[in-house]
Structure formats: structure tokens, C-alpha cells
Amino acid sequence: MPITPATAAQHAPEGTAQAILLELVDENGVTIGAAEKLAAHQPPGQLHRAFSVFLFDDRGRLLLQRRALGKYHSPGVWSNTCCGHPYPGEAPFAAAARRTYEELGVSPSLMAEAGTVRYNHPDPASGLVEQEYNHLFVGMVQSPLRPDPEEIEDTAFVTPAELAERHARDVFSAWFMTVLDAARPAVRELTGDTSGW
Question: Is 82 a catalytic residue?
Fold first, then answer.
């Protein structure tokens, strides 16, 4: 990962672990502090800044990822293209582009802001809580994927009909439908009215 002023604090000397910090926000998305990542997700959860990315191919299909089985939060479930947390002081757009590249090995094309959504989603399996002020982004993926196996178990491009079938059959992240529904206006603008999104 490139070292920037925002990410420099996240790097520790070789062989040492350093806590990952998240940006805590108020109900209007104004930064009010920072907290260690796992602590921010302990019940009842601390409201923190997050992002969700939705990338589409040139046929208007949404790229889903299945989270790696080794992840501490929501392992093995399907979710949107990429999601995560900006480091304190890191712009959400920059964090979304960085994390998409780290997880999938691709840089998004035509990525644009798609609004924000605030939610509170407990994860029944882990007992952790997603209290998030989430910045949404939509864009295109135009190069071959190179998923990091430590982050991603599987990927799939789906049409709206295929997503409905998969969502009825498989387990998805607790936040998936909330962020997708909030991003739909921007998704339709990107993919066109005939895409079905």
C-alpha cells in the first residue's frame, strides 16, 4: 500500500502489529474522533465512516465478492464489489479506490460519488455491529480481476435477475441491501434505464 500522510500512521516497523484506526463521526458525518477497528464494532457499536463500492462491467452486470473465510467480520458471505473504512484523515473516494485495488487488483474507471447512507446492522454470526456513515461509489471495471485470496473467496458478475436468485439462495452481508438500495439512483444513471437496476 502506498504511504500517504493519511496512511503513514497505519504502518508499524517490521514484525510489529499496529492497531487500525477508524474515523468516528456524528450523525451528520462530521469527524469527532477515532477508535480502534474492532472496538468500534463491539456492541452497541460506535458510529464511524465507511465506504461501499459498486462496479459494473460493460454489460451492466454488478461485480460481487464473496468475503474470504479468514476474515474476522462476516466471513464467507457475498457482498458488494468492495467495502471498508477510510483511515482517519483519508478522503472516502481515495480510500475506496485504494481498497478496491488492494482487494481486487483493479483500479475503478469512471468512479463517482453516489451519496451516503447511515445504518445500524448487527451481524448475528459474529455479534459485531455495523454502525456506519457510509459513502457510496459507483463505477466500471474494465480490466481483469486479480483478487487477493486473503480478502476474497470468490467473485461473480450478476444481472439484476441473477442477483435476486443468488440473494434468495446464498448468505449476503447484513449491510448489502441497504447500501445497494441507497446507491440505486446513481447505479441507474451509470448503467442506463434498460439495465434493470
Answer: no
